[in-house]
Amino acid sequence: MAHQQHEELIQALHECMTACNHCYDACLQENDLNMMANCVRLDRECADICSYVEQALTRGTPFVSELTALCATICEACGEECKKHEHDHCQKCAEACFKCAEVCRTA
């Protein structure tokens, strides 16, 4: 099965998507939404691409290298934005994003 050879990547993608979704929701609860706007935007972009790539891998996509390259770029952008914020959810999201980007780059 195609998804078994990408097990570590699929797990990293799922963990990143989950962290981004949590960060997205938590950011919307913060007092200064204007300050969090870019974080919220990138959380959505990152969660969506991670979810898509996870699904594509499980169905044996022939575009693994192209999708993982794009995903790594978006994960890094999200991680860079999240690490600017002191909130625990942002820091955890940044960590998940950087881990996912690293795994994507080695896929």
Verbal overview:
There is one protein chain. With 107 residues, this protein is mainly α. 79% of the residues lie in helices and 0% in strands. The chain contains four helices and no strands. The protein has helices spanning 7-27, 33-58, 64-82, 88-105. The model has no long low-confidence stretch (mean pLDDT 95).
Q: Notable features of this structure?
A:
about 110 residues, about 0% strand, YHJQ-like, Csp_YhjQ
Question: What is the helix content?
Answer: over 70%
Shape: elongated
Q: What share of the residues does DSSP label as strand, in percent?
A: under 5%
The mean pLDDT is 95
H/I helix tally: 4
Fold topology:
Layout: H1 7-27, H2 33-58, H3 64-82, H4 88-105
Short description:
With 107 residues, the chain is mostly helical. Helix content is 79%, strand content 0%.
